[in-house]
Every structure is written in C-alpha cells, then in structure tokens.
Design brief:
Layout lengths: L2 H12 L8 E4 L2 E8 L4 E5 L7 H5 L2 H5 L4 E5 L18 H15 L4 E6 L1 H12 L4 E7 L9 H5 L5 H12 L5 H8 L3 H10 L17 E5 L12 E2 L5
Parallel strand pairs: 3-4, 3-5, 5-6, 6-7, 7-8
Antiparallel strand pairs: 1-2, 2-4
Helix pairs in contact: 4-5
Length: 238
C-alpha cells in the first residue's frame, strides 16, 4: 500500500457515520475530538489501539449523552489525531496538555474524567498536573506505578496482515466490520513508537499521598493484579 493509499483508507475509515468533527492544535499536533449530548462535561478517554469512537461502539455514549456533554478525544497517535513518529511527542505532559487543549477549545473550565488503560494513565497525569480542571476521576485498567512496557511493545506487529490477525484474535465475534476497518487504518509505526516511549516510564510521581485530594474510583478486573488505592470511591456525579 502506498502512502497516499494508506492516507485515503484512513480518511475513509473515519468518515463512517458521516459527521464532521473538530480539531484543536496543541504544540503543533492536531488533536481530534467529538462532543455529544448536554449536561456537565465528561471526558471519556480510550486505551491503546482505540479512539473516541470506541466509547460509542461499546454503548457508553448512548447511555451517558442524555445527562452529560460527552467529550471524546482521539489521543495523539490514534484515530484522526496527528501521529508523530518522534518518541518525545508521547510523554505524559504532552498527553495531558492535549486533553486540556480540548477543554480550552470548548471553553470548559471543569469536567469529569473517565479513562481506560492508556486513558487511565493519562488521567493520573491530569490528577497530578491539573486537578483544578476536574471534578472527579474514574480510572479503568490502569495505575500510576512504575511498569516496564517493553513486553507490550514486543507484541506490536510490524506487518499489517499480522496486525489484522491480532485484532481478529483479540476481539473475536465482538468485532464489527466498522470497528475492524477503523482499527486496521491505524498507523502501526506511531503505535509502536507510542508504546516504546512508555517503556519503564509509566510511573506518575506524586509529591506525596496527601496530594491525592480528588474524587475518584479505580476499576480493576478480577484477573488483574490488585494495587493499593487511597482514592475516594465516588462515581461520576449526576
């Protein structure tokens, strides 16, 4: 596939649904986002391989849009956002500033935040660097502690056919044609660089445990390693 063919495939994949969606430029990187619904602002941040559209695919948006202004950013390297091939573009400070840039573009001073996996890690960064911009946090499948991400990076295929096989295996019969097309339009080099930039650097260092003064809830699956969490158990307020 040539570069122009890949770009067209990526564009077509993200036109599914036929809606135009805004971008904000943060430090030279365009960040794509969508807003749906009315009410208190709620940021839903996806995990690796995903995009803002993932939350629609899984039914969260339909459930939440009646009572919230749901904000769906595409993390840099994902979705319709720019995909830098510079590892320094993916550090936590830049990622948190992307979310803040979206809120600023919308004129929103405070929001609730729900992040899964990569989105949870970014949420811990926001809790550290910009707690005054959020009313509450939910973290799913993530933690702020040090972790070597090299094994995850090693799983990233370099070949698009191998990536397609991995996607089919992971999602199985839950994989619709629309979701598959979107996933296969991913920039594999950007995803690999992104995951590589987090090797041994995922720890979010807080000055002290006393600095965790926000409302939050951590969701840990039964098969995941339990980690200590001193956050207040508070789900998203109405």
């Amino acid at each position: 596939m040539t570069g122009s063919q890949f770009a067209q495939a990526n564009c077509n994949a993200w036109r599914v649904g036929g809606r135009g969606m805004p971008f904000v430029t943060n430090q030279g990187v365009r960040i794509h986002y969508e807003t749906i619904g009315n009410g208190p602002a709620l940021v839903l941040h996806h995990g690796t391989f995903g995009s803002g559209a993932t939350w629609t695919d899984l039914g969260y948006v339909d459930t939440l849009k009646a009572d919230h202004q749901v904000i769906l950013p595409d993390s840099r390297g994902h979705g319709q956002s720019d995909k830098p091939h510079d590892p320094t573009a993916y550090d936590l400070a830049r990622r948190t500033s992307d979310v803040l840039a979206v809120l600023d573009d919308l004129g929103i001073q405070k929001a609730d935040y729900f992040g899964y996996s990569l989105g949870g890690w970014i949420g811990f960064g926001l809790a550290k660097h910009a707690p005054d911009r959020f009313r509450s946090f939910i973290f799913g499948g993530s933690h702020p502690y040090g972790e070597n991400m090299q094994p995850f990076r090693d799983l990233m295929p370099r070949d698009r056919d191998a990536f397609a096989a991995m996607v089919d295996q992971i999602f199985g019969d839950r994989l619709t044609a629309v979701i598959r097309t979107r996933l296969l339009a991913s920039d594999l080099d950007a995803l690999r660089i992104d995951s590589g930039s987090r090797v041994q650097r995922r720890r979010v260092a807080y000055p002290s445990s006393a600095s965790l003064s926000f409302k939050g809830s951590q969701i840990i699956g039964a098969a995941e390693r339990s980690v200590p969490c001193s956050l207040t158990s508070e789900i998203i307020p109405p």
